[in-house]
## 1
Amino acid sequence: LALGPDGNLFSGSGDGAVRVWCGIDGSHIRTMQFDTDGVYSLTVGLNGSLFVGDFAGTVQVWRAMGSGSRHIVARNGSASAVTLCLSVTGTLYTGWDQEDYEDEDEGPAMGGVYIL
């Protein structure tokens, strides 16, 4: 779940869809279908760019909330992109969760910081 700069809410799902909801009355505004292995995490930039992390460990940025061009920001093929946080200065913080822990209490195995 992410809050956009216009007050709308964004939710991701396992089928690769991101749904946009009105932050005032909760009504559904639109659904954007992404070519991804299920949306695991998302965040929205101040300029409306949508960052989508998927189960396959890829983080993509979509310009203009899914209607424009996209590019890969980060990729970790052995872990899911479970957390995304975008600072107001444009730094993207990520966290990945590997499924093959020897000790399940270790938490996320790795993360990254990307200056956009």
## 2
Amino acid sequence: MSTDVLFESQHSTMSATIGSRGVFLNGNLTLAAAINASFYALMTTVRENVTYSSSPGGLATNSYHGHTFWDVETWMWPNWNIFYPNIARSVLQYRVNRVPAAIDHAKQSGFSGTMFPWESAFTGSEVDPASGTTIEEHIQGDIAFAFYQHWMLTKDLNWLKKDGFNVIKGIAEFWVSKSVLNSDGTYSIPNIMGPDEYHGPVNDSVYCNVIAQMSLQAAYDLAPLVGQQSNATFNKIASNLIILFDETKQYHPEFEGYSGETVKQADTILLGYPLSFKMSSTVRKNDLEFYANVTDIHGPAMTWSMFSIGYKDIGLNSIAESYFWESFSNNINGDYLVWSEVIGGGGAQNFITGVGGFLQCLWAGYGGIRIHNDRLEISNPIPLPSTSSFELHGVSYLEHSFDMVVSHSTWTIKASSADDNDSPLFLQVEGGSSPVPITSTPISIKSGTSAFISAQEVQ
């Protein structure tokens, strides 16, 4: 096969795979190239109906031995979920198919329920060559959170009954066996490592405890929907898990006894996004400022996108912009704009974990999109830095899809195609009088205004 034929075949296949969905912008060709290269890297690693997952380096490298980590569910997967939910479900099926191995892993480790390994490959058994990180059991919560996000985005009850709930429930059972009752009636999670791999084992990692709490609460809340009785123990532990907070400094310490040491990567700041843990803007700002000063500048690429999203969420757009540029400009290299794990081209190559964080910065940060149980929120979308406007095409919600165009004066939303005019979604604009159906006719909203989308008119 000639190189010309090979190129055309690849171009045709990728065009069909990516389609018209994704992020497009006006006024900055250099940034557009970085976005296109990032989407390409993300989309070459998995396929719809191929029930396998990815590694931090995808198919292009053997980075991290080709193993599957939290990098998938926390960093890469949310982008598939929002633009390509069928691909997202195929990736989740990788975990579903390895539940028996995860149950065995829990038993061998002295726990109950479903315990996925920190590093997984073909069989689903633990394959981490560095035993010190096998205690990064936050991956259980990361997986449960992804499954719950997919449920909220699709509301596919058949999938929930068949696959989704069993994974969430099994992970909740793991957290029950991992947690320890304290004398005051609270619960702790001991001997664990959070995303910050510079510290561990620790007790009561705030990230681990929050995502465990969410796993337990999701299992409790979803049970009636699949015809099961809610497990009161799930709710009891979720309600009484220690969530560390410093009342004097008004911020969340990373773990019990933490006193400001250097952290490797985004950890506690993930409470704000993607977890949407309830806190005031002041506390969110304090968390961001504190951890910005102690995060290793040579840590992995995806960290800085989370700072950008956080600062944009609280309206500090100039700081968000500086972190936006930092989230990719020092980690994307060469003529083909290949990602590296650390600044200057070092670490894992074709680092799709960094890609995932960067792409989330586009639609969740500047696009303001959040998935909730009863709605899709669009919070104050603004154009990407140094652009005149940007567009999100094919955003998926409840088996429909819509497009957004965000400029400096307005943002618009419309159904992606006329096919979405049947049983349309409804848009409720902040301060608006009544919801309006989203059809193929664009709806224009003043810049700085938020809205939410639901499946029915909200009065």
## 3
Amino acid sequence: AGEGYEQGAMLDNSGGNTDLNSMLDSMITRCEEGGSGPAKFMCGSCGKVMARKKDLRRHVETHLDMTHPCGICAKVMKTRSSLAAHYSIYHKNEVSSPWSMI
């Protein structure tokens, strides 16, 4: 994940991010491991299980037929977190926040 960029903070005021997050959440199922212990979360597309919902939300995004182009060099990423990492590595001196460019 990109340093300095929180996935949940992306485009919060546009409404588009809220719809995408709702779609991602609908693809995640909460499951219990053997009825005890901490809750786990499972991807509805491939069955992958992770302990943290935010990590699985990032994973589930890879199953969607979506791309996220860089606004500076036009490189295309599969997830928002990959785009954030790209900005922080390759364009950190060119933009203060990648989400202000969308």
